[in-house]
Write a structure and sequence with these properties.
Helix content: under 10%
Order of helices and strands: EEEEEEE
Oligomer: single chain
Strand order of the largest sheet: 1-2-3-4-5-6-7
Radius of gyration: 16 Å
Structural class: mainly beta
């Protein structure tokens, strides 16, 4: 297999825009994201589109996130929806640094 991966990012007026594409010759996945800062928090949206190999199920996923940097620790609350399985879930992600 001849895998390829491309990412692009750009920031304008405090808004970050991202694009990513992965092609494994069988599956192809595309991601588009937007994020910015509001009231000292980072808010973002990401859309993932999976074009699966023949016989497999394609899938779209949307992720909404809001995060706060607290110095040595950061917290991010995410809500994710998937089309293929018709599911959604909430996640709380934290990171600590020393």
């Amino acid at each position: 297999a001849d895998d390829s991966f491309v990412t692009l990012g750009y920031s304008i007026a405090g808004v970050g825009i991202g694009y990513g594409m992965y092609d494994s010759d069988d599956d192809e996945s595309t991601a588009i994201s937007v994020k910015t800062s509001v009231a000292g928090m980072t808010v973002g949206y990401r859309f993932d589109d999976l074009d699966a190999a023949a016989g497999a199920t394609d899938n779209d996923q949307s992720t909404y996130a809001i995060g706060k940097d607290l110095g040595a620790m950061s917290l991010t609350l995410m809500y994710t929806e998937q089309d293929a399985a018709d599911t959604s879930n909430w996640s709380l992600v934290y990171a600590m640094g020393f």
